[in-house]
Amino acid sequence: MTLRALLFDVDGTLADTERDGHRPAFNQAFADAGLDWRWDVDLYGKLLAVTGGKERMKHYIEAFRPGYQRPHDFDELVAELHRAKTRIYADLASRGGIPMRPGVKRLLEEARAAGLRLAIATTTTPENVTVLLEHSLGPGTQDWFEVIAAGDVVPAKKPAPDIYHYALEAMGLAAADCLAFEDSENGLRASLGAGLKTLVTVNDYTLDHDFSGAAAVLSDLGEPDAPARCLAGPALAGPCVDVAYLRTLHRN
Ligand code: XBP
Ligand code: MG
Q: Which end of the chain is more exposed for a tag (fewer CB within 10 A), N or C?
């Protein structure tokens, strides 16, 4: 079994987008529309249980605003708020306001040099991905990924495995040839559901999630001068995740 490709989640995995990216963009869209919806850091952590921005807004109304009277065009209101939120998020990302997580660029460059194929499998809106890559990873880097599978291209978002099935099919690869990268329980359920071995890098919102079934759980991918911590799975040979470590995870 040879490792041929790496499939990356975006939000929380490539970059810490949620707390200081998506969350303020939602809040700005709500305020601009004259709504009193306000998602603080703690509440947003709870709302992350539901993936997808439109789905998350509906979940918020259902679970946290019992008195809210839905207008007859509620779905259109949600869609319009989401379009506004996407514009605000894209503007923030295009100013380079959302840096890549430690080790992401280094590992992507090493993987490319080693001939590994790259793809993205995410719940977020496609435009959010391309803006983030262009401005935080670097100009032209979206071309590093032969498939960017994102958003509403599949009807069921993570934890459903559909987005991973979609990406694998587009690449013409079997799950056994690949390794996935995730940061959350919903993401891990999706990748495992598609039969992918998965490396998890945690963040503040996902530290307490259940990562059983992951090939390894790490603090981050690490840099030579900022070592990653291994929380579960095979120990790292050095300070950071490299392609040799990925091959070990894939073989195990
Ligand atoms: C990402 C998400 C997304 C983003 C917002 O989950 O849950 O909903 O928070 O994106 P994952 P949109 O990292 O598991 O893919 O507002 O564009 O839907
Ligand atoms: Mg994620």
A: N
